[in-house]
Amino acid sequence: xxxxxxxxxxxxxxxxxxxxxxxxxxxxxxxxxxxxxxxxxxxxxxxxxxxxxxxxxxxxxxxxxxxxxxxxxxxxxxxxxxxxxxxxxxxxxxxxxxxxxxxxxxxxxxxxxxxxxxxxxxxxxxxxxxxxxxxxxxxxxxxxxxxxxxxxxxxxxxxxxxxxxxxxxxxxxxxxxxxxxxxxxxxxxxxxxxxxxxxxxxxxxxxxxxxxxxxxxxxxxxxxxxxxxxxxxxxxxxxxxxxxxxxxxxxxxxxxxxxxxxxxxxxxxxxxxxxxxxxxxxxxxxxxxxxxxxxxxxxxxxxxxxxxxxxxxxxxxxxxxxxxxxxxxx
Amino acid sequence: xxxxxxxxxxxxxxxxxxxxxxxxxxxxxxxxxxxxxxxxxxxxxxxxxxxxxxxxxxxxxxxxxxxxxxxxxxxxxxxxxxxxxxxxxxxxxxxxxxxxxxxxxxxxxxxxxxxxxxxxxxxxxxxxxxxxxxxxxxxxxxxxxxxxxxxxxxxxxxxxxxxxxxxxxxxxxxxxxxxxxxxx
Lengths: 330, 184
What we know:
The structure holds 2 protein chains of 2 kinds.
Chain A: E1 5-8, H1 12-21, E2 25-28, H2 34-40, E3 47-50, E4 59-61, E5 67-70, H3 75-80, H4 82-87, H5 89-97, H6 101-106, H7 109-114, H8 165-171, E6 175-180, E7 183-188, H9 189-192, E8 211-217, E9 226-231, E10 242-251, E11 254-263, E12 270-271, H10 273-279, H11 286-297, H12 309-327
Helix pairs in contact in A: 5-8, 10-11, 11-12
Chain B: E1 9-16, E2 19-26, H1 31-38, E3 57-60, E4 63-66, E5 79-81, H2 94-101, H3 111-126, H4 148-154, H5 165-177
Parallel strand pairs in B: 1-5
Antiparallel strand pairs in B: 1-2, 3-4, 3-5
């Protein structure tokens, strides 16, 4: 591991200024991804700016009835918060489905959004990887890719984003707030993650040096009727091979509102806009749910060893929406 | 020191099991290495050193934490409890007693991490935290008891290569069901 300086930030402008002065510095949240990557030699910061003492660890109601979640709120505190559990239960379920109790106690909301892929080629500095070393190639395309992307990928990179939390935040139209030397700004989560294209090393639309300060959720009545389901190769403590955040509101036997976001299928959490459009105003049934899944998955481009994800996601969507439709008042 | 003069080590004070230890250390030092190599507290184990096995679990500000991913310099000023600090003098903690009585270990390597993690589980459950095994996570739902299924899910970050899981779950369940709810 490269030697590094350590700075404990006490205010947001100060933290931003330290990083602006040293582009080889990195912000440190819980360290559950960054310290791991530093041990692997993937990340080699010259300086760490510890964010723990910053006043970003609160969850509060916004004036319009949504939620504002500070960037250094731990995953555990986010999942356990009564307002999250009541108004956005799939977000609690998504966070609890991730990692382990110890990791959730350490990891921050901001860090969770920014965590890197767990593709084995990315994390191994002896292997080529266009995301880690632009232009070096992508061994996953013809190599080990059973848990890689079926949507939105390119020949340059087929990695998936591993976050569960981000999938639920995507379904609920979260907004990411950040600060740079020029002041405060925000990005819809929908615009936060860049398309892979031929620049897989550029993952987010954050300007250089930006410090995420909060994530806000708009008031979303349908989110109270939501569920997160994660499919994995073990009963617990494993990354998803496919996941779904679904919210469904039925009125007069017709879908009045629906949210769908997939995890572990793309380099970013995947909002299923086409599926949602198919369902809005439709009569809910397993057949319409399947048609919605098919509408979304027409653009799927599976690889030889991850083609199972297409029927997996389809079945997951049908099963979870059927379950929700049987529980919600009509 | 880095080429530009930035200090790459610091003298810090760690609060461990009620004692204060002031020591100079390289910023790269994890809390696990500081505990084991500098403070002779070898209870926490280095099982994987990448946050995946849980053998390094300690309590940081009363929350279970992986000491292998926790930088020591970032733990300054926080309350650290290791397995060596779980008993009250010669009086074993109920969780330790249960592990003995219910045979919650074989080789014992993962055990300090299991016990520290179990202490965290009991505290988190007492605070009303749901888990991935909880059917209804809404706050108005009835409190979820610590069933074996809940315990297995909440303890899933602690691996045991000897496979003592059944006994570990039984030990935690035993403590959860005893009349006094213990808090470390």
